[in-house]
Amino acid sequence: MAHCPFDFFTDGKKHTICLVGGGGKTTVMYELAAAWAACGRKVLVLTSTHILCPADGSFAADAAAVHNLWQQGRYAVIGTTELSTGKLTVPPQDLYEALQLQADVILCEADGSRHHPCKVPAEHEPVLLPDSDIVLAVAGMDALGNSLQQACQRPQLAAALLGCSAEKIIDAQMLAALLLSEQGSRKNVGARAYYIVLNKCDLLKAAQQEEMRRLLVGKGIDEHRIWLRERGE
Questions:
Q1: Is the model's pTM score more than 0.90?
Q2: Do the beta carbons of residue 66 and residue 79 sit within 8 Å?
Q3: What is the Cα gyration radius of the chain?
Q4: Which of 1, 11, 22 is nearest to 134 (CA)?
Q5: Which of 1-10, 75-84, 98-107, 158-167 has the lowest mean pLDDT?
Q6: Which residues are 140's β-sheet partners?
Q7: How far is CA 162 from the centre of its chain?
């Protein structure tokens, strides 16, 4: 079960959460979904872009299948199967609207990164749900020590944003800048609550973890809205 330190995880309120960025969004999303479902909450999972169809039986083709999963104490994944790829895309609007009223928690992967640990969104990204109240930005700490070209999706956009070349080696300050910029992971967040997951922190020494936390807090992020997450947590 995910050991999520964020206040919204245990506040008992209804939340619609969009996950953006890179470095493990899908893993974090399903961990949170499983943990909330284990607490007896009705959890709905979807994407506004593309995700793989889960192989664990959590995909629900219609409302009846969703309710069946909820009755079993499981989360339900909805979406439209894309024939060319087999992936799930945006679910039918009428299905989402009906289930939106009944779900306790909605989790939406709202951004793709093609497995890169960090990214800068293109003009059409991210696709945040209009009713979402929380944005959860994810970045993999394996980005550090690699170049933007190697570790960042849309490296040329990242280079333009940071004012450097795409061959520049990513350090903590650069990664923090991508997470905090309204052209980066904070794009279109607006009045939504903004939280950050630093993924794969077990790759870093304690001093490096603290440096990342310090940089983010120094730029105005509440320390309680930063999750230093290790693999397998």
A1: yes
A2: no
A3: 17
A4: 11
A5: 1-10
A6: 199
A7: 22
